[in-house]
Design brief:
InterPro entries: UCP07580 (IPR016516). The protein has 296 residues and is an all-alpha fold. It is built from ten helices and two strands. It has a single domain, classed as Ribonucleotide Reductase, subunit A, CATH 1.10.620. A two-stranded antiparallel sheet has the order 1-2. Helix 1 packs antiparallel against helix 4 and helix 5 crosses helix 10.
Amino acid sequence: MELFVNAPAKIDLDSRTSNPTPSDLDIVVRDERFNRENKPNRWWAGDAFGTAWHNALSATFPRGEAFFIEAVKAHRDGADAKLAAEIRAFVKQEINHTREHIAFNKLAENAGYDIKAIDKRVEEMLLLTKDRPAIANLAVTMALEHYTAMMAHEFLANPKHFENADPEVRDMWRWHAVEEIEHKGVAYDTWKHATKDWSGWKAWKVRSLVMVSVTGRFFKNRWVDSINLLAQDGITGWKAHWGLFKYLTVSPGVVRRIFPAWLAYFKPGFHPWDHDDRELIKIYEGEFSDALMPAE
């Protein structure tokens, strides 16, 4: 496969030695549960467009996060003690995220939304990964983990995203965001471990090309899913497309606001912890203190 062909090793675009993951980082499992008895309004986000976008995202998470777990676990052999512990904590956090998004998806279905088509398409897409090299699945996971970290940062840093949301639904997304920030370097550090024998050029080229490919599929599929969900609310045609575009790029504008962080992914020597945003975790972790569990 041409994507994995080596280029001259002397071109070092991706450091093999530096590791910006903070040495004092703790990945903590917060065993929270949400939305078991909650019955928010159908437009839980306060408007149809935010509701459709987040419902479309959530519908992909149960299968998607199971894929992330397997992709990272496939490369844990030989990891040093620190990375091995972080992988275990990552797996536990993602298992909890899966559980809570299953509950949230039931909430959406109870409100009358049909999200089965989204889940089915994710299932079919993941079946295509079965015969792919394990390192390719890890590269996809690393790119998508960057997306979750970018959006998590934005959701926590800009309260406008959930200011009109149902309180319990908002708490679920904020809880998820905290943990996505906390483990944002795990897939990347696992990638560095798994590709330690690659040249810097090859590692940079593969992760960059995979990110471009993932970005195209991510936005195409989430757009189609959101438009289909909006149609279930009777919003179709140009009103649906223009309203969703404004939601994503103008106000609150999550896509516009994460663009610089997305672009940073292509920087030679990039690492998710180049930007240490643990202050966002500190702001919210007190609210979850009763649910903290040891990661080990």
